[in-house]
Amino acid sequence: MGQIAILTRGLWRLRGEIAALTGLSPVRWEPWRRPAFEAVAGWGHKPTADRARRLASQSGAPYIAFEDGPLRSVRPGPSQAPMSLVMDRTGIYYRAGSGSDLVSLVASPDWFTPDVEDRALGAVEALRRLKLSKYNSGPERSPRELGLEERSGWIGVLGVDPDFRGQAVGRRLAEAMLAHFRGKGAVTVRTLVDEKLAGIGQFFISLGFEPAPLQPFVKRL
Ligand SMILES: CC(C)(COP(=O)(O)OP(=O)(O)OC[C@H]1O[C@@H](n2cnc3c(N)ncnc32)[C@H](O)[C@@H]1OP(=O)(O)O)[C@@H](O)C(=O)NCCC(=O)NCCS
User: Fold this and answer.
1) Which range is least confidently modeled, 7-11, 131-135, 163-167?
2) Which candidate among 47, 75, 208, 218 keeps its CA 20 to 30 Å from the CA of 107?
3) Residues 185, 120: one domain?
4) Is residue 165 pLDDT above 80, yes or no?
């Protein structure tokens, strides 16, 4: 059986999986211990794999990239065993420019038969149905809890007749609006003010608003 050189501790932990996928026997390669090898393993095409790729090109042996598969593990972290592993002798799937075994396989009608396509679509459907993602230990959160669907109120204009300013009319108007938004389930309220208008910022700050780091852009047509 030929040997495959592994240069990093992270990949060495996966030597059992690498042996099963490549059919080669993993050997730890160090600058002071240089066993013979037929291929070099590296983690994807990240800069951390530079050393492995250099060794492969200097020795003329093929570089084989490994990467997390779509289902990494129950919890994040290197101590967790991977549930899937991608192996690619050409490139890696996330680098569109360099090609990859995956792209070649999908483009090959001999391999990507209707039967394989059905299995792939079934797997996608199973991931959706079981709500699986790369890591799977977190509690289920609604899009709103994650801030992806945050309900938000918007104050377009709030103004008080100049003759009646300074009598808490503005505050009462604003508080009525905030109560309305709260009743609708909003968790934030936003407005845009002209910073050249004296006092308007102070008015909103006195109501508990905070300046937000948002910069409006305008183009006249
Ligand atoms: C801003 C405006 C709505 C305030 O109305 P108002 O009825 O005078 O405000 P209130 O009397 O209810 O004051 C509420 C708080 O804001 C503060 N405030 C209001 N105007 C202020 C000013 N010019 N400078 C500093 N603070 C001011 C008040 O001191 C008060 O604070 P406090 O309760 O802690 O004492 C009013 O000046 C206005 O209509 N401005 C022009 C319109 C405008 O630009 N609208 C904004 C578009 S979103």
Assistant:
1) 131-135
2) 47
3) no
4) yes
CATH number at residue 216: 3.40.630.30
CA 198 to chain CA mean position, Å: 43
Prediction pTM value: 0.54
pLDDT band per the 50, 70, 90 thresholds, residue 147: low
Q: Ligand 1, atom 8: nearest CA belongs to which residue?
A: 165
Mean pLDDT computed over 61-88:
89
- Last residue in a domain, options 80, 100, 129: 129
Nearest one of 24, 22, 47, 44 to 36, comparing CA atoms: 24
Same domain, 85 and 37: yes
